[in-house]
Amino acid sequence: MNQFGLLGVFAGVAVATGIFLAAYLIFIRKEQVLKNRLLGFIFLAIALRVGKSIAFFILRDMAAIGLAIGFLGLASIGVLTYLYVSSGEAEFKPKKMHLMHAMLPIIGAIGCYFVFNTPLDSLFYQSGTAFSFIYVLLSWRTVYIQKTDNDKLKSWHVKLLATVTLVLLSFVFQHLANSLMGYAIGSGIAAIPLYYIFFQALQSPLVFTPTMRVEASQEVIDKVKMAFEERAIYRTQGITITQISEELEVPAYLITRAVKELYDKSFPDAINSFRVEEVKEKLCLGDDIKVEALAYDAGFNTPSAFYAAFKKYTGQSPKAFQQTQILQSA
């Protein structure tokens, strides 16, 4: 097997690894579904770009659609990485402005299709690399200024960003190389950080769920139940699982397990459901009560957060709920 073949196999296995990770995160992983799908699409984007390189130096021929798909992967790497690390510990919540981030990769991919086999196709790829680098630099800045007590999450973000940065640098090497062999070597270099992040992902509970299920002890369950039902910790605005963990001297993951066993809800959902129940009880006392005052007393930060949660758990607005209760008691 010649050098091109060896580099093709080495990089090809890395591409298959990236696709495997992407498939697991997009279709199988159930926790923080949207955030893990973002991570999966990062690996898929890298795999598409490296796969395009392999096709170029092995097949020596490239269809316009292949060039366009490779560009889409390249230009999406930085955007996806930025959106992923920006969400911090929380689940990713899509917003309309996120569509703006996605527009250039899509428009660029369409443009690549039409400039195939012209001097402009190289310019498109150079621009796509620069575009992703800008977002990766923003991602590094975000991780640097992000305040979190979750050391494992921060460590994972740093490892992921290091991987993405090295992959993009390998693409820069390809742009600077003046030979087909240099281009092939660039693909081999891109494969190395992919192997690294794959083995790091295997060891990270943030990516692969540990096979051993950790149950909360009865003592922990009792502590959490008392905190919710007797001490009404949900009334504290902006309460986080980290704060409760420190207060109860119980690891955060055990609090999550206890909340799930007690209320069959995630921690944020349990907090909001208790707040809504408290407001519901007080709404039944009379119709001259200021709803928003009740919401603040129950722990909601903003009226919009309260109305959204109330609608979610009751299917009604507070006013409609109150009127229904009055009619039922008449």
From TrEMBL:
Occurrences of domain HTH araC/xylS-type (ranges): 218-324
Entries under SMART domains matching the protein: HTH_ARAC
Superkingdom, taxonomy of origin: Bacteria
GO molecular function terms attached to this record: DNA-binding transcription factor activity; sequence-specific DNA binding
Membrane-spanning residues: 6-26, 38-59, 65-85, 97-116, 122-144, 156-174, 180-199
InterPro entries cross-referenced by the UniProt entry: Homeodomain-like_sf (IPR009057), HTH_AraC (IPR018060), HTH_AraC-typ_CS (IPR018062)
Pfam families for this protein: HTH_18 (PF12833)
Keyword vocabulary terms for this entry: DNA-binding, Membrane, Transcription, Transcription regulation, Transmembrane, Transmembrane helix
PANTHER family, alphabetized: ARAC-FAMILY TRANSCRIPTIONAL REGULATOR
Protein name as catalogued: AraC family transcriptional regulator
Source organism of this protein record: Fulvivirga lutea
Upper classification of the organism: Bacteria, Pseudomonadati, Bacteroidota, Cytophagia, Cytophagales
